[in-house]
Design brief:
By secondary structure, the chain is mainly β. It has 7 helices and 22 strands. The strands form 6 sheets. Strands 1-2-5-12-7-10 form a 6-stranded antiparallel beta sheet, with no helix packed on it. Strands 14-15-22-17-20 form a 5-stranded antiparallel beta sheet, with no helix packed on it. The chain has a 4-stranded antiparallel beta sheet with strand order 16-21-18-19, with no helix packed on it. Strand 3 and strand 4 form a beta hairpin.
């Protein structure tokens, strides 16, 4: 059997969105002809959108096939006990030429009951933002269900939402139940549970080319809201060079920030796969048997069976993710 002990790359899955643009092509070198590509799914085990290996001896296999074949060697023993043949994370790049809908995501319990899915805890790392570009996260005041529903009914929802002006490197942790939206002019990397469940509550009254509004999910969303969340969604993190700087640690994933300027030896003692997302520059990832370059806008999956490896760069910024 072919071995799964090398840095795996995958073909990106491009998604047209009514709010998408061209930055995935112009800034991240993704190839597409659409005028409005909104998302590049870098690593996905979502039904119907499974990533396919693009390099090495396992080229052509899907992420699902890899997991069925290599099991714990791919994702780690403790992860395989929990997730079996389902990869737990979805990695995306998102380009918002226009504002995304105001939305939120259900928790694990609600998502399992209604959709036979995981919930959708996620985080954002801003890779580029136009002047005055915003993210919408949470409310700008204490909120109750009654007050929220009044604003929804009166189409004054934007009056109670929190708008944050953002710049490159800003990071947000979006827990389930928190209202949010990516604003026009923001391109970001998104790390999330494997789920495609989104409840839209407002879509700026926009229509598609046929004059149709997109579906809203207010009946489903009202039970998914958590109106008592603290304003702890902004992530503060260190940026020490050639060190592991923790950004987010939650039950679903851990994400670290690496600014690599010299060779760094890594030891995998987590019994997990590692994902590397290059957000700036380029780096070389070397295992005992293989090596692979990772450029800005690319993602690599290092199987759990890879115990030691080296990352080399004169100036690269990477997000490191494991479960």
């Amino acid at each position: 059997m072919k071995k799964v002990n090398y840095p795996l790359k995958f073909h990106p899955i491009l998604k047209d969105k009514i709010w998408g643009g061209q930055k995935l092509k112009t800034l991240l070198n993704k190839q597409f002809s659409s005028p409005n590509a909104g998302e590049s799914w870098e690593l996905s085990d979502v039904e119907g959108d499974t990533s396919i290996v693009s390099n090495g001896s396992l080229e052509g296999l899907t992420l699902k096939e890899l997991l069925e074949k290599y099991k714990a060697d791919l994702i780690g023993h403790k992860n395989y006990k929990v997730f079996k043949n389902k990869f737990p994370l979805l990695i995306k790049f998102i380009d918002a030429k226009q504002d995304l809908s105001i939305q939120l995501h259900p928790n694990d319990e609600l998502a399992a009951k209604r959709h036979n899915s995981f919930g959708k805890t996620e985080m954002w790392y801003v890779m580029q933002a136009d002047d005055d570009a915003n993210l919408i996260v949470g409310f700008n005041q204490q909120m109750t269900q009654k007050k929220y529903l009044e604003h929804l009914k009166n189409k004054t929802l934007t009056e109670i939402l929190n708008f944050d002006k953002v710049k490159t490197g800003d990071t947000y942790f979006i827990e389930v139940g928190r209202v949010h939206a990516i604003g026009a002019g923001v391109m970001l990397a998104e790390i999330q549970q494997t789920s495609d469940i989104t409840y839209r509550v407002y879509d700026w009254d926009r229509v598609d080319e046929q004059g149709n509004e997109r579906d809203l999910h207010n009946d489903l969303a009202i039970d998914a809201f958590n109106f008592d969340m603290p304003d702890n969604y902004r992530v503060n993190y260190n940026k020490d060079q050639n060190s592991t700087n923790n950004m987010v640690s939650c039950p679903y994933f851990t994400t670290n920030f690496l600014h690599i300027t010299e060779p760094v030896l890594k030891l995998n003692n987590k019994d997990s796969f590692f994902i590397y997302i290059c957000v700036e520059g380029e780096a070389l990832i070397e295992t005992e048997t293989s090596s692979e370059f990772i450029n800005k806008g690319e993602t690599i999956l290092l199987p759990a069976i890879v115990e030691t490896y080296k990352i080399t760069s004169s100036n690269a910024k990477l997000l490191e993710v494991y479960v």
